[in-house]
Design goal:
single chain; 60s Ribosomal Protein L30, Chain: A; four-stranded antiparallel sheet; globular; disordered N terminus
């Protein structure tokens, strides 16, 4: 497998991971390089993905009025939600992955479909898919939602940083307009950082999928709520 661009900690580290970082996309049947696997293999390189909620969870849990769920219930809700998300977004190019051991669900909106180059306007043709994601988020209210924006390398880095922030904000605003409580959501842009590569059968790599937004859904347990109340 030959990779022409630096992916996170570099091609040398990626080579050490080998095929362990490759998983099959449930929507397309294609192989892809799993950023979750890479982050784990490199000792938590993907801090934004493997770490906690943006800005911490105490204030956000209280501000959003999240009730939390008992452990066993939360586990079932997690399994049900990830299953629904995969079914509802099948064939759309959206990737749905488990992060850690039921620590979070990652919903990756596809490059080139969600946004045009240089734009933070959500393509109208992607509305039905986003509506399905919003419905699931409303149906499972006991979670925090982090929305991350990314860009390709076209243009100046400072411009791309602003654009990535605008893309994350646009998706959060869209979800809010569809009934997802805005207090549950936080946004952050990463500009040109964190390439994501999809790998076809035979290890023929497509262009990096960087013009994208990722939605990280972080389940909140009753213990999390109690801790937040005690620490405020």
């Amino acid at each position: 497998m030959t990779i022409s661009r630096i992916l996170l900690s570099g091609t040398a580290a990626l080579a050490l991971l080998g095929t362990s970082a490759c998983v099959t996309d449930p929507n397309t049947g294609e192989k892809k390089i799993s950023r979750t696997a890479i982050g784990t293999g490199l000792g938590g390189t993907l801090g934004y993905l493997l770490g906690g909620a943006i800005g911490g969870d105490t204030g956000r849990i209280i501000g959003a009025g999240i009730g939390g769920s008992a452990g066993a219930v939360l586990g079932k809700q997690y399994d049900d939600q990830i299953k629904e998300l995969k079914e509802q977004t099948a064939g759309s190019g959206v990737d749905v992955e488990e992060v850690g051991n039921q620590d979070a669900i990652l919903v990756r909106l596809p490059d080139g479909v969600t946004f045009a180059t240089g734009s933070a306007a959500i393509n109208p043709g992607f509305s039905d898919t986003l509506n399905s994601v919003a419905e699931t988020l409303v149906r499972y209210p006991n979670s925090l939602i982090d929305v991350y924006g990314f860009t390709d390398t076209t243009g100046a880095p400072a411009t791309n940083q602003r654009l990535s922030e605008q893309r994350a904000q646009a998706v959060a605003d869209y979800l809010s307009a569809r009934g997802v409580a805005r207090a549950r959501m936080a946004t952050r842009g990463y500009g040109e950082q964190y390439d994501y590569l999809r790998v076809k059968t035979g290890d023929n790599i497509n262009e990096p999928l960087n013009r994208r937004v990722e939605i990280k859904i972080i389940p909140v347990s009753q213990d999390d709520v109690n801790a937040a109340r005690n620490n405020r």
